[in-house]
Design a protein that fits this description.
- With 69 residues, this protein is mainly alpha-helical.
- It has one domain (8-56).
- It is 67% helix and 0% strand.
- The protein is built from 2 helices and no strands.
- It has helices spanning 3-32, 39-54.
- The chain is elongated and about 60 Å long.
- The model has no long low-confidence stretch (mean pLDDT 82).
Length: 69
């Protein structure tokens, strides 16, 4: 692989790493509770809990979900 190609690959890897690190920070903020959940997140959680109590929530493996295009 040429030096130019290696530099481009390295640049892309660094960009991906930065984005992954930011995603990790966001997940930690939400899970640890540094930041309060957004209103739509609270609503979704409440709807899930109600559905779970009624028995209307059905979890399926991700392998069973077809990719939408």
């Amino acid at each position: 692989m040429s030096g130019v190609a290696l530099k481009e690959v390295l640049k892309e890897v660094r960009l991906v790493r930065e984005k992954v690190e930011r995603l990790e920070e966001l997940v930690e903020e939400r899970l640890i509770g540094w930041e309060e959940p957004l209103q739509d997140e609270v609503k979704a959680i409440k709807e899930y809990m109600k559905g779970k109590e009624k028995g209307s929530v059905k979890l399926i493996p991700l392998e069973g979900v077809e990719k939408e295009n």
